[in-house]
């Protein structure tokens, strides 16, 4: 199918359930050539009129380039030693919040500051996405390398609203040269992917 080799998608769903507590059917997993391509495809699927993307500040330069090239304006929200400062979400005007297509976050290991987003902030972010009618792109790129303590649940596993798109890559755990990544799409985005990009 258009999402990639079925056996690989099945293996990823088993892995995600075991490692991150994410329950998802294989048909909602999309294989990509790395997380950058995943973000590029997701940005196309979520494009709306006058769309903005919320990003952590500071953020990865390459990510900002992908988002700007897809035609979005970028709104930076301050990150501290505990990741995205979600208190800033409350100060966004209704008009600005209404323009947000998605928030892009690295909650397991904020890049470049290294913070891990606490559960309360994760809940606040999910609540914001629900109220604003936007999505969250959760880049979980470093979750496999947590050495101490129990891993905090992924945003995707905490989300009961179908708002979180989970992206990750095997470049750190398997081999960088493989350039294999994947995205877990909510039902509405998965449907749009099959209809618009299934070829």
The largest pleated sheet is described as: 8 strands, mixed
In terms of per-residue confidence, which ranges show pLDDT below 50 for 5 or more consecutive residues?
Answer: none
Secondary-structure-based class equals alpha/beta
CA radius of gyration is 16 Å
The helix content is: 25-40%
Biggest sheet: strand arrangement: 1-8-7-6-5-2-3-4
* Count of alpha/pi helices: 7
Task: Please describe the topology of this protein.
Layout: H1 6-20, E1 29-32, H2 35-45, E2 52-57, H3 61-69, E3 73-80, E4 83-84, H4 94-98, E5 100-105, H5 119-132, E6 135-139, H6 155-158, E7 164-169, E8 181-184, H7 187-197
Parallel strand pairs: 2-3, 2-5, 5-6, 6-7
Antiparallel strand pairs: 1-8, 3-4, 7-8
How do you describe this structure in short?
By secondary structure, the protein is an alpha/beta fold. The chain is 35% helix and 21% strand. It contains seven helices and eight strands, in the order αβαβαββαβαβαββα.
